[in-house]
Design brief:
The protein is mainly β and 280 residues long. It is 11% helix and 32% strand.
Amino acid sequence: MSKEVMNPNNNIPAHLQGGKTAKIGNLDSSDQIIPRVKLLQAISPEVTTFDDAKAGEFWHTTASQSLGKVLAAIPIIIRKSYVLWSPRNDDRGILARANDGLNWDNAGMEFTVKPKGSPHDVKYKLGNTVHDRTGPGPALSEFGSSIPGDPNSPPAAALTYQMLWFFPEFKEFSPAIIINTRSSVKPAKGLISKIDMRPVDHYGQKYSIGITQEKGDEGPYFNYSYTADGFASEDDYLTCKQLFERFSTTEWRAIVESEDPDKGSGGHNNSGGPTDSAKF
């Protein structure tokens, strides 16, 4: 199937080229779903759906267009959350969230699941926060919690970073969200450390988002890399500052699905796992 590129400047009649001047209704940013940029894996459904979608490239989910293997990008906002996923053989998808990165949105609930590699059913009980221990085992945010009794099992609750980016070379596709969770948490934390070390506001910093090849329990996969790449131009800096001021005080939504390429983690992966619309 050929891709259909959504370019707002394509084929606009002369009498309509003055830009947008009218508001469609009493809507705001909380009513919008922000586009995603995904790092495609060999098992990503886009690879078989679109002619130009290739594993190891970045894919804009709304434009249905490849953005290549390297992206110039300026960070607008990074927010963390925790997501409790059902096992991959369980069609319930997301069981619970802590959208503020600490407090469960549905504290006190219990879920019975059968994780991969577990000889029996497991019960997950939510405390008030992701770090609360509600039984003899570790908290759901700690290693050993997805399969109680197995200290090497990953956390049942997946730390997740939602990153809102501006792409100077793809302004028409900006802003968009990149999600890092499970295997991509480490590069995300490295990025956060780099942002903190640099002497200007984050929306004045420019990065090169690249790709690494790694090997997981169930085979090779692509992961993210973040490298400092100078500073934003004056125009881009002002644009990104405005975006930061706009989105830091409002709710915004993304299509959320696990981006963990390490299928051996026991969670959902991006091979067509559940999607969910969430507010951050």
